[in-house]
Amino acid sequence: MSTTQTPPVLAAELAQAWADIQRYHPELPDLAAPESLIGESSSACGHELSFERLLHEAVHGVAAARGVRDTSRAGRYHNRRFLAIAEELGLDHPEEPHPSSGFSLVTLTPEAKRRYRPTTERLQRALKAHTAATSSETSRTFRGPAARHGSSGGGVRVKAVCDCGRNVRVVPSVLAQAPIVCGGCGKPFRIPDVVGAGAAAG
Questions:
Q1: Is the confidence at residue 84, as pLDDT, over 50?
Q2: Residue 52 in this model has a pLDDT that exceeds 70
Q3: Are strands 167-170 and 158-161 parallel, antiparallel or unpaired?
Q4: Would you say the pTM of this structure is higher than 0.85?
Q5: How high is the pLDDT of residue 29?
Q6: Number of H helices, E strands in the chain
Q7: Rounded to a whole number, what is the distance in angstroms from the first to the last CA of the chain?
Q8: Backbone angles phi, psi at 77, to 5 degrees
Q9: What is the DSSP letter of 42?
Q10: How far, in Å, CA of 7 to CA of 134, rounded?
């Protein structure tokens, strides 16, 4: 197993980029587990890890903080409520909604590109370093069928809650790997039984 420190470094850069977004949007909850985004892909939210993808995830975070249901169809279809918050955060979707994913494929507005240029450049450098550090291992590492087909064990995020009332959206398989601890009270997030049962059935 490789002992490279690149994944923790990339996780730190993701956390810093998230904090940069929070400076403009204070209601955005903390990113509980930035490392969970590194190996995760979702056809609904975008496969490639980038600042644009991170800002997309931030839209979901703000929606969760406001109690807004921004998706339907098991999290695949991004509705107009998602689009309204996306526009607040500096994302745009100039075309008609996609039949299956809705307004998922948002892009940075020119203003957002200017605002977050230092953040974007810093994250791009970290992503390149991560890719360079892991590419040599790819040929020696078996990737399961879910990973080979761009899935993260279903890829559907559900709400995980904390006893203090905060919540995050997370893929159940990611939460099963290790606890995600709330930065507010130090207790682990958990998926309510009724949600977990529904996710298992899906």
A1: yes
A2: yes
A3: antiparallel
A4: no
A5: 94
A6: 8, 6
A7: 33
A8: -90, 120
A9: B
A10: 9
